[in-house]
Amino acid sequence: MVALIGASGSGKSTLIRHIAGLARADRGAIEVFDRPAQQNGRIAPDAKGLRRETGVIFQQFNLIDRLSLLTNVLIGLLGRIPPARGYLGWFTEAEKRQAMACLHRVGLAEYAAQRASTLSGGQQQRAAIARALLQQARLVLADEPIASLDPQAARRVMEILTRINQEDGVTVLVSLHQVAYAMAYCPRTIALRGGEVVYDGDSKALTHDMLNTLYGSESEILFLPDVELGAASDPSAALAAAAVPARA
C-alpha cells in the first residue's frame, strides 16, 4: 500500500498513466510484475495481458451513468471474456453472482439495480473499486480517488483500499494530495516534484519540516487543517471500521 504525493503538476497522474499503459513515455522502461510494459516510447506487445491484471481507479469514477451499478461492475470482466459476449453485454449468472459479491464487499449490494447516475460520489467511487475487484487485478492504481469526495466518503474509500491490500494481497498505489491520508493508510510514500522522486520511505517520517524542505511554500497544500481522520489515524481501527457496511 503505497502513497504517491506531490503538488499539482508534480507528475503523479502521468506516472500512473505510464504504469497502466495509458500513455507512452518518451524514453526509459517500465516493468509491471517483472514484465516489460513499455520501453523507449513503445508499448510492449504484452500490454493487453498486463492491463487485465491492473485495475485503474480514476478521480471521476468513469462509470456509465445510464447503466445499472451491477452492469458497471461487470464491465470489469471485459478483458477476460470473449469479445462477442462483451459487445452484447451478456454475462453468465455465475459472473453476476461474483459481481454482487464484490458490491457486497464495498457495501453497495442493495444498490445493484440502480443507475450509476443516482448514486453519490463516494458510492460511485466504491463501485469503481468493486469493478477492479471483479477484474481480479493484482495491482490497483488509484489516481486521486478521494480528491472530489467529502471527508467521510474519502475515509470510507481509503479503508476499502486498505482492506483489499491487507486481505487480498493486492498492491495498491494511490496518489493523494493530503499527507494525512498517506500517513494513516500507507506504510510507504513516494514524493514527486517536477517529475522526479524526492522521497521514498516511511510515511510516518513525513513531518511538516521535511515537506517544507522538499516543497517549500507548496508544502502547505499537502497539510490541510480541515482533515480529521479520527479512528483512521490508527490503521487497525480503520480496518475495523471498514468491516461495517456504510451508506455514505
Short summary:
The chain has 248 residues and is α/β, with parallel strands linked by helices.
Topology of helices and strands:
Layout (H helix, E strand, L loop, with lengths): L1 E4 L6 H9 L8 E4 L2 E5 L2 E2 L3 H6 L1 E4 L11 H6 L8 H6 L4 H13 L15 H14 L4 E5 L7 H18 L2 E6 L2 H7 L2 E6 L2 E7 L5 H8 L19 H8 L6
Parallel strand pairs: 1-7, 1-8, 5-6, 6-7
Antiparallel strand pairs: 2-3, 3-4, 8-9
Helix pairs in contact: 5-6, 6-7, 7-10
Write up what this structure looks like:
By secondary structure, the chain is α/β, with parallel strands linked by helices. It folds into two domains: 1-53 and 138-248, P-loop containing nucleotide triphosphate hydrolases (Rossmann fold); 63-137, no CATH class. The protein is 38% helix and 17% strand. The chain is built from ten helices and nine strands. The strands form two sheets. A six-stranded mixed sheet has the order 5-6-7-1-8-9, sandwiched between helices. Strands 2-3-4 form a three-stranded antiparallel sheet, covered by helices on one side. Strand 6, helix 7 (151-168) and strand 7 form a beta-alpha-beta unit. Helix 5 (93-105) crosses helix 6, helix 6 packs parallel to helix 7 and helix 7 (151-168) crosses helix 10 (235-242). The two termini are 24 Å apart.
Defining traits:
248 residues, 38% helix, Rossmann fold, 10 helices, 3-stranded antiparallel sheet, 2 domains, disordered C terminus, 17% strand, single chain, 6-stranded mixed sheet, alpha/beta
Might you state the CATH topology name of the largest domain?
Rossmann fold
The CATH homologous superfamily of the largest domain is termed P-loop containing nucleotide triphosphate hydrolases
Number of domains in the coordinates? Answer: 2
Helix and strand content put the structural class at: alpha/beta
Please summarize the sheet with the most strands.
Answer: 6 strands, mixed
Distance between the termini: 24 Å
- Quote the beta fraction: 15-25%
Number of helices: 10
